[in-house]
Write a structure and sequence with these properties.
- By secondary structure, the chain is α+β, with helices and mostly antiparallel strands.
- It folds into three domains: about 160 residues, 2-Layer Sandwich (Aldehyde Oxidoreductase, domain 4); about 180 residues, Aldehyde Oxidoreductase, domain 3; about 325 residues, Aldehyde Oxidoreductase, domain 4.
- Helices cover about 30% and strands about 25% of the residues.
- It is built from 19 helices and 31 strands.
- α15 packs across α16.
- The longest helix has 28 residues.
- It binds dioxothiomolybdenum(VI) ion.
- Dioxothiomolybdenum(VI) ion binds next to loops.
- The site of dioxothiomolybdenum(VI) ion (MOS) has 9 residues, from loops.
């Protein structure tokens, strides 16, 4: 029996974030806050070449330093020297005779009594290399003259073949064609990567900052040559992740576990910011070519897209990221003819991986730039052009997925128009521009689709478990397999539990993820925690609730159908008692109030040969309108106003959602304007926040107006879909379009830094 929205006590209400107080008071325990008796500190010996053969590793000097416990090389790996979440192409430690493939590959590991000694010893490890010419660009990689891996430089290719694009272009009245480039982005989580490996009599416990404890539980036993039941992974409070702690912590944990294994002592391996930026994954640079055909009235007829992704030195998660790029490449539109080809190519640079949006912001920037440019050439307002082509119930996506429910795309457009007071906004912007000679404003629009959860390519991982127990005092303990990394999952799950059980929100506690409580629940990625863990928690709570209801009806002799639990009180008419009282009675009657449950993705039909089928379980939608201001003399851009509407299915926690959308916008704006990875010969030069520039509070627009469309999804908990990634995805495109409209020239590359914009302004 579903509770009606109007009767709900917690869902949709304003609640205090469950981890707010501990975070504000500095009481959260991040991995570097842990202390264990006899602990050691780890450090990495990183490659100083983009491509070179390891000739000799001399650890003698390092080992002689006072306080150094071990210096390890590939020879010290008891299991397989093999990492890689999807493709096993990455060594844990590069062996003698093999190649280092990027500036950041790991050659040796050190554990010492202090961090300072460990760092000193890492510097003292002598590695002799034979320098080899590296592959540093997509173009060089495609030549395939120098091979990053023996198998060849193209890791994999993905495609969509829907309808017939040649026919589509013949029927088109206007064809527009262009090239776009979206560069790297660094996650810039505040807490760097960190793992604590603690040897136990029965194996090892690993604590750490991570999104995916089960990935770690998979990776480490292979390296140590032990079974999965002798290793327990406990997530420590995690200070941001954004995709950067999806697969990477598995590598950090493998390194750290090796040190703990050999020293038999607890080891903390906490990366410095410089090591973190040099070694760990980034958003993929994507070069794309778009050819798009329209009818005179603005209807999309055909889209042909060719894109190349720079995956770096190892595959890591790239094949899955490429799948999301593929499905999102044609944008949020109803297009009868679609042809997409995406290649992922190896280079001797940092491996790219997961980052909020997961391969979609780059292609959405391209298609949304095309839509903006087309609206000018067609003489149709950019919003009307989106409206004309938007997906509805009954539409088919670019992968030919027939949409049958929860398609709030058009509503997000209508809400954004209203939120922005669009007609007046256009007037005020042109008024501003007529009065100002050296400052110009522009409106940028974007409209996006987001496939929720892992989709057809990740079905084998798309399930999640929950373990709910009611303690004797009526308080509730919940374990799930997904993780809190700052996004607010614990709060939303506590809300779902409170609403379902009828217990007060304050009585619910969601514990940090521990692999010993819940079965492998897949990764905490793809904006799937609310939907997957939410459904699992809801079901477990329903199972317990029915036991409580039947106990009450038995002892009070009332009809079970008439019994309600709400806000900590169980009642039937005037007969009532507190949640705590009925739980006490259950305990005294030996009723078991613990339940585990499992939610799994319904089967999706997908054909990888044509790229057609049910790509994702459901989709979220968003429409964004921004106003940017460009200083025409310096090229400096700032975002003045943001209006953004998101179809989330159901706003379970409106305050949390607002926080996600604000943060997502700012991170997307950073990608559009400031964040630039600079390299020399494959070495990242911008390896700290003094050189890698992220937005600060000074750069945040004066207003971010946010609106939610609630087009409920029948399989979501209370109708909810996901927001984590779609909060960022419209921003880069909207900001870039705003700049293009302010300066009257098309931004084709992001980040559109001050230098880039100034060059564009000055270009003839
Ligand atoms: Mo997320 S980028 O799917 O970790």
């Amino acid at each position: 029996m579903e509770t009606k929205t109007s009767e709900m006590t917690t869902i949709g209400k304003k609640v205090k974030r469950v981890d707010a107080i501990q975070k504000v008071k500095g009481e959260s325990k991040f991995v570097s806050d842990y202390e264990f008796k006899g602990m050691l500190y780890g450090a990495l010996v990183l490659s100083k070449h983009s491509r070179a053969r390891v000739k000799r590793i001399n650890t003698d000097k390092a080992k002689k330093i006072n306080g150094v416990k071990v210096v390890l090389t590939y020879k010290d790996i008891p299991g397989e020297n093999q990492l890689g979440e999807v493709v096993e192409d990455m060594p844990c430690l590069v062996p003698i005779g093999e190649e280092v493939r990027y500036f950041g590959d790991v050659v040796a590991l050190v554990a010492a009594e202090s961090q300072q000694i460990a760092n000193m010893a890492a510097d003292a490890v002598e590695v002799e290399y034979e320098d080899l010419p590296p592959v540093l660009s997509i173009e060089e990689s495609l030549k395939n003259e120098i091979k990053v891996h023996e198998s060849g430089n193209i890791l994999t290719s993905k495609k969509i073949r829907k309808g017939n694009v040649e026919e589509g272009f013949k029927q088109s009245d206007m064809i527009i064609e262009d090239d776009f480039f979206a560069d790297y982005q660094e996650h810039a989580y505040l807490e760097t990567q960190g793992i604590f490996a603690v040897p136990e009599p029965s194996g090892m416990t690993i604590y750490g900052s991570m999104q995916c404890p089960y990935y770690v539980q998979n990776a480490v036993p292979k390296i140590l040559g032990i079974s999965m039941n002798s290793i327990r992974i406990v997530q420590s409070d995690t200070g941001g992740a954004f995709g950067g702690k999806e697969d990477v912590p598995s590598y950090v944990a493998a390194q750290c576990a090796l040190l703990a294994y050999h020293t038999k002592r607890p080891v903390l391996l906490s990366y410095s910011r410089e090591v973190d930026i040099q070694f760990t994954s980034k958003r993929h640079p994507i070069k794309s070519h778009y050819k798009v055909g329209f009818k005179k009235d603005g209807r999309l007829v055909a889209m042909e897209i060719k894109a190349h992704m720079d995956i770096g030195a190892y595959a890591t998660l790239s094949p899955i990221v490429m799948y999301r790029s593929l499905v999102h490449a044609a944008g949020a539109y109803d297009v009868p003819n679609v042809k997409v080809d995406i290649d992922g190519v190896y280079t001797n640079k940092v491996p790219c991986g997961a980052f909020r949006g997961f391969g979609s912001p780059q292609v959405l920037f391209a298609i949304e730039s095309i839509m903006d440019e087309s609206s000018k050439q067609l003489g149709i307002d950019p919003i009307d052009l989106r409206l004309k082509n938007a997906l509805k119930v009954g539409s088919k996506t670019s992968t030919d997925h027939l949409l049958t429910e929860s398609v709030g795309a058009v509503e997000t457009i209508m809400h954004a128009i209203k939120l922005a007071d669009y007609e007046n906004l256009k007037k005020s912007v042109s008024e501003f521009n007529s009065k100002n000679r050296f400052k110009k404003r522009g409106i940028g629009v974007s409209h996006i689709i987001y496939g929720v959860a892992l989709g057809a390519a990740g079905q084998s991982l798309d399930a999640a478990g929950a373990l709910v127990q009611i303690q004797r005092d009526g308080s509730v303990s919940i374990h799930v397999g997904n993780t809190e990394m700052g996004q607010g999952m614990k709060t939303v799950l506590a809300m779902i539990a409170a609403e379902t059980l009828g217990q007060k929100f304050e009585k619910i506690s969601v514990e940090n993820t521990d692999t010993s409580y819940v079965q492998d629940s897949g990764p905490t990625v793809a904006s799937r925690a609310t939907l997957f863990s939410g459904n699992a928690v809801k079901e477990a709570c329903e199972q317990i609730k029915s036991k409580i209801l039947s106990m009450f009806s038995k002892i009070k002799d009332v009809d079970e159908e008439e019994v309600t639990i709400k806000d900590g009180v169980i009642f039937s008419g005037d007969v009532k008692m507190t949640f705590e009282e009925i739980v006490g009675i259950c305990y005294n009657s030996n009723v078991n109030l613990i339940s585990s449950s499992w939610f799994k993705s319904p089967k999706l039909n997908w054909d990888p040969k044509t790229g057609l089928g049910e790509a994702y379980l459901t989709y979220s939608y968003a429409t964004q309108i921004v106003v940017v201001e460009v200083d025409m003399l310096t090229g400096r851009t700032s975002v003045v106003d943001v209006f953004t509407s998101h179809d989330v299915g159901k706003a379970l926690n409106p305050v949390g959602l607002t926080g996600q959308v604000e943060g997502g916008f700012v991170q997307g704006m950073g990608y559009a304007l400031y964040e630039e990875i600079k390299m020399r010969d494959g070495k990242i030069l911008t390896d700290n926040f003094s050189t890698y520039i992220i937005p600060t509070i000074n750069d945040i627009p004066q207003s971010i107006k946010i609106d939610f469309v609630e087009d409920e999804f029948s399989q979501g908990p209370f109708g909810a879909k996901g927001i984590g990634e779609p909060s960022l995805m419209p921003a880069p495109a909207a900001v870039a379009n705003g700049i293009s409209n302010a300066i009257g020239k098309r931004v084709k590359s992001i980040p559109a830094t001050q230098e880039y914009v100034l060059n564009l302004i000055e270009e003839e």
